[in-house]
Design brief:
transport, ABC transporter ATP-binding protein, four-stranded antiparallel beta sheet, about 35% helix, Rossmann fold, alpha/beta, ATP-binding, about 260 residues, globular, about 25% strand
Length: about 260
């Protein structure tokens, strides 16, 4: 059975059609990278997956059930802008996800619950290489370290699906490569299903097992908002093949043709 499935999925804002006719099936453990021009609806799609954006038409299902209309522990998310609390330490930022989930009234855990959450946070921070920075505050961290912290936050509730919205766009090339290795490692070890938006086609092929291109397949110059983007390319990527760079180059040429 597919983990995530869409049939005739669409998103409209009034008369403005952003996404239309999305049909796909994603199996557990796939790494789907999404590319496309700015404004074509990639982030809107990710928000629909997260549950913060409503569906206009069609179906979007997880485990053959309609996706909940709100975020849940089964779906973790990391944005390009670091979603961390500046007044909390690295450890505090990581624990808070479980505190807010398990103690909605006080937003704080005590006793055995607090100790268990701390142990879980320590495990996540060790996985992302921040075990040496527990008492540091976000402003004391580099960009790469802040993004590692955001990933630790996203993994705290042990999600099955990880949503990444251009998570490496603001990082220097060297740090970006380190983050590629980290996300690949976490994906394999935790058997995650990942959807990642990127503007970098080479990055899409380097990380993904499947590359989607969002674009408009029909257009009306007199009514530019009448039609939305859909998945115009759905390419399988063999991560052991050496011709991924040539695949990326060919796709770039096709998209600009």
């Amino acid at each position: 059975m597919s983990l995530v499935e869409a049939k005739g999925l669409e998103k409209h804002y009034g008369d403005d059609v952003v996404l239309e006719r999305l049909n796909f099936s994603v199996e557990p453990g796939e790494f789907v990278t999404v590319v496309g021009a700015s404004g074509c609806g990639k982030t809107t799609f990710l928000k629909m997956m997260l549950g913060t954006e409503s569906i206009t038409k069609g179906q979007l299902r997880v485990d053959d059930k309609p996706i909940p209309g709100e975020p849940g522990p089964d779906r973790g998310v990391v944005f390009q802008r670091y979603s961390v609390f500046p007044h909390l330490t690295v450890l505090g930022n990581t624990i808070i996800a479980e505190e807010l989930s398990r103690s909605r009234v006080f937003g704080k855990l005590f006793g055995p619950g607090r100790r268990k959450a701390r142990e879980a946070a320590m495990e996540r921070l060790t996985q992302v290489g921040l075990q040496h920075a527990l008492d540091k505050y976000p402003h004391e961290l580099s960009g790469g370290m802040q993004q590692r912290l955001a990933i630790a936050q996203a993994l705290m509730m042990k999600p099955r699906i990880l949503l990444l919205d251009e998570p490496f766009g603001a990082l220097d090339p060297g740090i970006r490569q380190d983050m590629h290795e980290l996300v690949g490692k976490l994906w394999r070890e935790q058997k995650l299903t990942i959807f990642m938006i990127t503007h970098d086609i080479e990055e899409a092929f380097a990380l993904g097992t499947r590359v989607w291109v969002f674009d408009k397949w029909r257009d009306d110059p007199q009514a530019p908002q009448a039609y939305g983007a859909t998945i115009t390319y759905d390419l399988d990527v063999d991560r052991n093949r050496e011709d991924a760079p040539s695949q990326a180059k060919k796709l770039q040429e096709d998209m600009h043709a």
